[in-house]
Amino acid sequence: MSVIAVERMSKVHSDIRGPLFVEANKMAAAGIPVLKLNTGNPGTFEFKMPASVREALLANVDGAVAYCDVKGMPAARQAICDYHRKNGLDLSMDRIFIGNGVSEIASMIATALFAPGDEILMPAPCYSLWTNQAYIAGAQPVLYICDEQSDWYPDMEDIRSKITDKTKAILLINPNNPTGAVYPLELLEQIVELAREKHLMIISDEIYDRLIMDDIPYTSVASIAKDIPVLTCNGLSKSHIICGFRCGWVAITGPEKEANEITEAIQKLAAMRLCGNALTQLVIPAAMADPESTREMLVPGGRLYEQRRATTEALDKIDGITYVKNRAAFYLFPKVDVKKFGITSDKQFALDVLHGTNVLFVPGSGFDWQQPDHFRIVMLPEPAEITAAMERIGKFLETYHA
Length: 402
Prior knowledge:
16 helices; alpha/beta; 402 residues; 8-stranded mixed beta sheet; single chain; globular
């Protein structure tokens, strides 16, 4: 491996399945039961794919034998196009690429559009997929602050202060991972206006847009940014419980010239890998026509709603931990009182909790958060199990000091 490659990869980190995960696996291999709250993977917690998805897969499986269109099966892209049009996007199915999860889509975007020296504004905390892809492309992620005191909304003054002549794009993760925040229309309008003023494209990761609770209104940013290039990323992994299917896509909108250039660049990468997983694409039309199986998880009595209630009620009883209630997805990003517990390393804190409680979570630094005072909880176990886990953490913290 060349020196250049070593330097580029040295910044790449994947803490969700990093050293703490390896340690948890060693404990499990030694017969110690570990509750893994590191990965948003509903299928491992006995969530089942909807019947509509299963039936579509089994009835059409022979249609996935051959390579399909490099952009994706027409029926699947049309279903995606119809979905986004309902959300206000001015979109053609020819500007949709289906990939092997948003992970592959993010790689395509970064490879096609980021050049060495480019700066990409990204939220802090940030899902590390995006910062890693910037590093791999030789670009520089520039982190803008999301303010915990303002429901984890992006700080507009901080965003503006970090724009330079090297800035190429603004990344939004909305609904957000790891905070579960949902951004209001007024904030999105400010971000769009800033992108318009500074001639920046917007990349919007919206994979949790079907997992919003509490009747919070939602706006897809491309619907209010029709005069600037927007790449909207989405998928079915979480909303329809098929993480292993690797089902993600990107929808490209904006002025024709810029949209054409982006489409042509990504087309080259899509063609290189021949096609996305065809089995996945068979179920997209059925999944997009079945919002009810997702919605029933989000209302009182639904699993995600009740798991959030159980988690927050248990955390309320722990002295030294505070949180902002999530409004979407199944993540919580609590704050721990570092002075009270003498914490200087969030990684060491997470390791100590793992050894002391058999509960695995990801420290905030895994999401490019610069202070050692946060961690992410994946709220996917059944309410009784997640309650018991939070109670173990609370008991552990009663005598803990780093």
